[in-house]
Design brief:
single chain, 448 residues, mainly beta
Length: 448
Amino acid sequence: MASWKKVLVSGSSIEVAAITSSATPTISSIGSNYVTMIDPTTGYISKITSGNFQASLGQYAYTASADTGTPVIIGAADTLDVAGGTGVSTAVASAAGGADITVNLDYTGTDNFIDAATDLEGTAIATGDTIIYHDATDNNVKKGLVSDLPFSNNSGTVTSVAITGTDGIDVDSGSPITTSGTITLGLSNIANSALANSSVTVTAGSGLINGGTVSLGGTISVDVGAGTGITVNANDVALKNAGSLTNNTLPLWDSGNGQLSNSAVVQGTAGAVTTIDISNAALIVGTPSTPPGLVGQIVSDQSIIIEAGGLNVLAGDSVFAEDVTINGDLTVNGTTTTINTDNLLVEDKFALFASGSATATDGGIIVQSATGAGTAVGYAFGYENSVDRWAYQDSLAYNATAFGTPTAYAVTAEYAASTPPANPAYGGASGFGNIFVNTSTQEIFIYS
């Protein structure tokens, strides 16, 4: 199993593993039920096999046989004083060690065991509470529930209960009650005026008019408000001048008449997106030198600015004869990006590889060393996920998605003012060759 090994350098101390002796006793050789001690001569743990030992535990001393370990109290002639506490009438002075002492409850006086209890006088006693009592049948003290007492409350008796209904509440059955029973109530016609809220208020929202307060059972109308370009009919709401608008034609706003009308922009025949139809003509921007008549093309001698929406080329390759400057981000969704340039300048301080990975994976850079149609290979340096280390590999294919068998691994150096951790940060238990420096002791370790 790999571990950190100290590297001996000038000025460092030599450390060797501890030397053990086969004669050193183990726990199993001592056995059980023995007292152990450190032998000052050998430094080993030994057991007491004969005689007695003595240990001081508080005010008493105990001895035990080395064979049985049974404790015996020393000082049986010592005396013990017992002072009666609250609710206890016993008080003993100078009782001999080992003597029996009888403790009695205090039944008399103001400090008897009942008066010594928590004072809850004036607090109601529940029927489920427990009380103690003297049983005259056998002269023993026993406990019972308050509900077991032979008492009842006979201060009065209800002989009849009757209920009548009003304001929409009826008595369905059960009234009156002379001994016991149930009275059933029901609802009948409740007048709206008897309700706390006998009306509702309807508020017209955005685009609506009218509304107001109406009594329960009443009606009120809320109408659609007519606006600019909107016509409110008896049964519908319509766009003003909607009957003159042409299908698949982009409408425009006629501010003079407050309505929509047709524009010169219609939907192209090739797709569902509304476009300027140039299927029979060219769209001329500015005064280009190219003569008009290029059907289906956009011709311009000026910059074409697209302020929103972007430019979407659905088919065909695009060729730029001059320099191209992209002020925003460039996203390439293809499978291969080819840059045929002498110098590649990247301003970003950190480049992100394998950006589409949700978990750790292999990745790195390859310097080509051989060419071939689809067989280019090179020297690779990158992160090898299976061992969590940076690795080198000769002859890795340009389109590889993972390392094969790395040729070598990069060595890392860690340092701290402490001993090395269990494993290196890179490589873990497979981090062979990595170095750790204890900055406190100047010791150097290599993992092997």
